[in-house]
Amino acid sequence: MVGLDGTFYQVKDDGIAYHVDDSIKTPFALVTFFEADNTILLHESLNYTQLEQYLDGLLPREDIIYAFEIEGTFDYIKTRSVPKQDKPYPPFSEVVENETIFEFHDISGTIVGFWFPDYMEGVNALGYHFHFITEDRMAGGHLLNCQLQNVIIEIDYTYEFYMILPESDGLYDADLS
Ligand SMILES: [Zn+2]
Prior knowledge:
By secondary structure, this protein is mainly beta. The protein has one domain: CATH 3.30.1330.80. The chain has three helices and ten strands; from the N terminus they run βββββαβαββββα. It has helices at 48-56, 92-95, 170-173; strands spanning 2-4, 7-11, 17-19, 38-42, 46-47, 65-81, 100-116, 127-134, 140-148, 151-158. Strands 4, 5, 6, 7, 8, 9 and 10 form a seven-stranded antiparallel β-sheet that branches. It has a three-stranded antiparallel β-sheet with strand order 1-2-3, with no helix packed on it. β2 (7-11) and β3 (17-19) form a beta hairpin. The longest helix is centred in the first third of the chain and has 9 residues, at 48-56. The radius of gyration is 16 Å and the shape is globular. The chain starts with a strand and ends with a helix. The model has no long low-confidence stretch (mean pLDDT 93). Bound molecules: zinc ion. Zinc ion is lined by residues 129, 131, 142.
């Protein structure tokens, strides 16, 4: 799922970004009202690993959450999606064995994502986690790799976190290890 500017998209394993209707439920979502605290025009060319290192240098402290919007035309983007799962739900490590990979070249769009501090392990994925949506909102996915240059990076310093747990019993019966 990708949410951007108040609209939500589901990138299914056919690679197509479907508009998510307000009535559709999801097992997990991480959202914020994005307000940029820092805006950087990135000139140098970076791959995914280098992007993480570059962003590391921009984060003023390691004990808060950060949200990101990275917008522009990307030299290369590699994303994935996974197929719909049925009960009994397998561990995610098994689900990703059936992932579908998508590659884009010279593609305009937006990378959105978060960085979570170490002490929030178990609540969310630690470190960086990014999703991508194309400018025409037709495709995207979970970001695996990229090559980017001359893009705008916006960072939202986030000091507040609010968690809603499901009232159904599925979560509490699950093996969360
Ligand atoms: Zn993801």
